[in-house]
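Box 3.1. Reading complex inputs
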Amino acid sequence: MINNIITTTLSSLNVPVSFQKYSGDAVDTYITFFCYTEKGAIFSDDKISAMEFYVQVDIWSIVDYSEITESVKAAMLNAGFLYQSGTDLYDPDIREYHKALRFYYLQED
Amino acid sequence: MGNSIEISGMDELLKKLEYMVSPSKQNTTISKALKSGAKIIQESVKPKIPRSSLSKEHAADHIEISGIKKKDGVSYVTVGADPSDNNEFFYLKFYEFGTSKPNALGLTFPALAMFGRTIAEEKENVKEQMEIVIKEELGL
């Protein structure tokens, strides 16, 4: 399951990782992720033989998140994900930095 | 919004384009193909963008296709609204990437990844449409 793969991949970074929502008490930095598209990529005999997943990994932080960004990228690439794009965001209302990273993963049966 | 489609697998067609027509015609053809592909993204993303019930203009009414741009010798177009913070529709980036908790107005923006989803879903259609346009222009 894609969620387990991502959670396991990012678990070594010593930052809380959670699917969709985070409800823990980390103050500085935490990570959430979700899959924004999943679909069949390869078909044989009218069946899906490979699935592709488009994933967004979000780093939420009140401190400099440069280092954790690079660690997330390295861990995901090492696990077989392709890096697609990244966007730096800041929301003054919640005073939080938000780095959105997007990855692609092809999973064959 | 930071999402992109890199079209590959059209090498043969692009070679034909290079050999069969003048540089000027090549540029016109690539421009038409890019705009035609971008039109698919534009039409597909518009209905995914949330609208309020207020009778006013929304970001969905301002999803525009840019002119042809060039970077490192590669031509491209962008589809979207001006993402700068002083633009009236800057909130699109929150819909695309999400926010973590309610803002001062009590509004949350869960990530909808409208552009990301559309690009993932429409990639093959964009490629097919671009191939059609190039072939038409070459009379193939």
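In summary: The longest strand of chain B covers residues 69-71.
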